[in-house]
C-alpha cells in the first residue's frame, strides 16, 4: 500500500509554490482562497513540517518545502507529459514523425501510399522540423541526416536508415560556366555540407558569391532558376535529374552518418515505430546503396 500525502493538498501546494501566491493558486485551481489555504494547512500537518514561511506580504518556501517542491514539480511534469501523450494517442492513433519539409514533400509523402498498403492499421502524423534545431513536437521519431546540432544522447540512439549522397547540381546551361563564376547556393542551417563536399571531392564546384536559403526546397528552386549551384541529396531531385532540368557535373558522393531516425527520449519504441523504420530502410534502399 502506497504511503502518499493527500493528493488534492499536494496539487494546491504545487500551485502555490509555482505561482508564489495562495490567491493566484486559488484562481488557477478555480477554488476559493480559504479552500486552498486549508489544503496547505492539511499538508503541513500531515507532513509535520512547515513548507512556507512569510516573506513580506507573500510566502517563501522553507528549505524542506523547496526540497519537496523539486520532487513534486518533476513528478507533475512527468505526469502531465504522460497524460498529454495518452490523450494525443487516443485521439489520433498511429505514429508521429518529424522531418524536414523538403524530405516530406519530395520523398516521404509521395511514398506513403506504399507504406499504407503494407500497414493499413498505422497512420502517420507529420510535423516539420529543421536542421537548425530539434523542436519538441512530441514526435515518436525524427528523421534527419545532419545531427550536428543534436544532443549527444540523441546521436547515440539514432538508428541508421540509409546512406545519403549529395551532388552539386545546377541547370545544364549553368554547368557550362567556369567554377570561378558560379554562385554557391547554401542552406543556412547546414553550412557544413559544402565543407564536407569539398573535403571529399576536392572539386571547386562553385567559387563565386554565396546565396543562402533557410530550406532545401528553396535551394532547389534557386538552382532550377539558374541562380547557382546547390548541394542536394539525390533522392530529393530524382525527377529533375531524370527530366534533365538539373545536372550533377561531379556526380554524387556519400556523406558521413546517412539518414537516421532519432527516437523520442525517455519513451520505449513502439511496434508501429519499428514497422515504419523497417519500411523506410527497404524503401530508401536502391541500386547504389
UniProtKB/TrEMBL annotation:
GO biological processes: DNA-templated transcription
Record domain HTH lysR-type: where: 5-62
UniProt keyword annotation of Transcription present: yes
Key words of the record: DNA-binding, Transcription, Transcription regulation
GO molecular function ontology, one term from the record: sequence-specific DNA binding
Similarity annotation: Belongs to the LysR transcriptional regulatory family.
Protein name (database record): HTH-type transcriptional regulator TrpI
Organism this protein belongs to: Achromobacter dolens
Amino acid at each position: 500500500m502506497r504511503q502518499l500525502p493527500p493528493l488534492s493538498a499536494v496539487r494546491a501546494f504545487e500551485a502555490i509554490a509555482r505561482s508564489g501566491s495562495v490567491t493566484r493558486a486559488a484562481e488557477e485551481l478555480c477554488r476559493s482562497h480559504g479552500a486552498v489555504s486549508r489544503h496547505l494547512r492539511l499538508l503541513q500537518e500531515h507532513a509535520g513540517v512547515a513548507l512556507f514561511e512569510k516573506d513580506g506580504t507573500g510566502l517563501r518556501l522553507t528549505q524542506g518545502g523547496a526540497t519537496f517542491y523539486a520532487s513534486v514539480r518533476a513528478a507533475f511534469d512527468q505526469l502531465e507529459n504522460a497524460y498529454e501523450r495518452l490523450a494525443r494517442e487516443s485521439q489520433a492513433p498511429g505514429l508521429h514523425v518529424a522531418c524536414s519539409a523538403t524530405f516530406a514533400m519530395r520523398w516521404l509523402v509521395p511514398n506513403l501510399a506504399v507504406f499504407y498498403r503494407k500497414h493499413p492499421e498505422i497512420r502517420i502524423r507529420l510535423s516539420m522540423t529543421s536542421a537548425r534545431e530539434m523542436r519538441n513536437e512530441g514526435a515518436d521519431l525524427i528523421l534527419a541526416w545532419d545531427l550536428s546540432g543534436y544532443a549527444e544522447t540523441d546521436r547515440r540512439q539514432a538508428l541508421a536508415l540509409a546512406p545519403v549522397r549529395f551532388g552539386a547540381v545546377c541547370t545544364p546551361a549553368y554547368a557550362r560556366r567556369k567554377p570561378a563564376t558560379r554562385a554557391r547556393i547554401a542552406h543556412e542551417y547546414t553550412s557544413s555540407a559544402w565543407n564536407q563536399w569539398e573535403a571529399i571531392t576536392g572539386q571547386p564546384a562553385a567559387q563565386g558569391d554565396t546565396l543562402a536559403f533557410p530550406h532545401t526546397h528553396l535551394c532547389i528552386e534557386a538552382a532550377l532558376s539558374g541562380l547557382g549551384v546547390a548541394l542536394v541529396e539525390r533522392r530529393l531531385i530524382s525527377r529533375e535529374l531524370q527530366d534533365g532540368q538539373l545536372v550533377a557535373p561531379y556526380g554524387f558522393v556519400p556523406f558521413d552518418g546517412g539518414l537516421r531516425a532519432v527516437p523520442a527520449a525517455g519513451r520505449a519504441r513502439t511496434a508501429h515505430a519499428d514497422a515504419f523504420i523497417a519500411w523506410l530502410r527497404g524503401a530508401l534502399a536502391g541500386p547504389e546503396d
